[in-house]
Amino acid sequence: MVLEVEIDREVCMGSGNCIYEAPGAFALDDDTIAFVADASAASEEKIIAAARKCPTHAITVRRDNETSP
Amino acid sequence: MTDFAGVNFFADRAVQDDPYEYFDWVRAQGPVWQEPRYGVFMITGHPEAMEVYGDPATFPTNDTASGTFSSCNAVSGPFVKFSEPVEGDDISEVITKCRHELPFSDQLPSFDPPNHTDHRHLLMRLITPKRLKENESFMWEYADRLIDRFVDTGSCELVGDYAEPFTLTVIADLEGVPEADHSLFRQRLSTAHEKIDHKPLEFLYERFSEYIEDRRQTPRDDILSGLATATFPDGSMPEVTDAALIAANLFAGGQETTVRLLSFALRMLAERPDLQQLVRADRDRIPNFIEETLRIESPLRTQFRMARVRTKLGTVEVPAGGTVMLVPGACNRDPRVFDDPHEFDIERPNARQHVGFGHGIHTCAGAPLARAEGRVTVNQFLDRTSEITISEAEHGASDSRRYDYLPTFFLRGLRSLHLELTPAS
User: Fold this and answer.
1) 20 to 30 Å CA-CA from B417: which of A68, A69, B339, B385?
2) B368 contacts in chain A (CB < 8 Å)
3) Distance from first CA to last CA of chain B, Å, rounded?
4) Does B58 score more than 80 pLDDT?
5) Best interface-test mutation with A: which of B124, B136, B294 has the largest number of A CBs within 10 A?
6) What ipTM does this complex have?
7) Do A56 and B129 touch (CB under 8 A)?
8) Residue B280: what pLDDT?
9) CB B371 within 8 A of CB B310
10) CA dist B297 to B139, B302, B331, Å?
11) Set of chain A residues whose Cβ sits within 8 Å of the Cβ of B125
């Protein structure tokens, strides 16, 4: 199953942690707010690490409609 | 090469003034290295630091004793010990029982999950790039007003004339701290570091508790109101003192460090006319200029962790209770991650991977504010001048500069920066 990845852009603080943890999957826009660039560009393990290490818990990862990182 | 084997990192002034050759030497001993004097495990390698910063990663599981490392000593450092003996391969219980004995134990950086997660949640949405953009006009205006005071005299002392009043007033405005209290805070905060009280910020907490009470009665459009009305993840309302503590941490935490960032940024512009020209002509370079400044001169010099259980970092065994010291300024010059690490490269593609703000769940909550303050300051100084140079009368000729650095092991910063300014015509 492919993970469904979302970022709450109201909550994101632009730390860039997700870009380090899962290169290619996330990127920062001109306002330094993160967005999902390509969820298939990094392994599930890395995307889950990005969610768990996000300082504002702005990243949600879902599989089969369940939040389960 | 200097003999660094006998250096006391915590006290040696020569290394405090110019630490980078020493950091390279330490990293050559090993990116994780137990310094012999106090037995502290120094982290000077970037990947190794990321491993420590990344622990614990707790979301959404929020177990009490998760993770290999505790942040209980994050601010207090290696010299304060628990009253109970630290023995065995798992000291979680001692940490839980004794963590309140450590200085700064009441501050957010010293918390572990789930307490940390709950309290950090109170700050959610309050300091984000989006929110700051809405409040940025005050920053621009106030920077302009401060520069007005000295630009026509042709010189300034950046730290006292600009950076200190700027950082204090900007966070005060954002939070909603009344102007009448600003000078009191300025006075008390400047001496707070001199005495290692158990709770050196007590006076702030009292005043901030009053603000929070007031905002619970009559909310306004400021961060204090946001904190006063914020709830824990389970929906419950924090005690007034809990919210006041976060508000006070935020107020105090961002000033000293941001002052150092601003002075390093301006020093870089003044020392390097070529860079100054480049940035003057193309302001879009400013964000990466700020990141590279944070990388090459990280204001936060040390952060600490305590191993909760016996573990291995890289190839080094760390016993339970071992003190781990993260050294951002050293990790940010790790040649395995940053090519030609001692060069300031304004086009460095991975400058933003510096750990000047930490990484993981404890990432500096004020980072978006510091970045905005840096961007606004550099822009305004360039707008209001046609040239910025170092005062040779104060700092010596270009081949024999003298700079005075803070004499501490937890901050890296200039005590003063005298600049000469040519006002823009």
Assistant:
1) B339
2) 13-14, 32
3) 49
4) no
5) B124
6) 0.92
7) no
8) 98
9) no
10) 24, 13, 11
11) 10-11
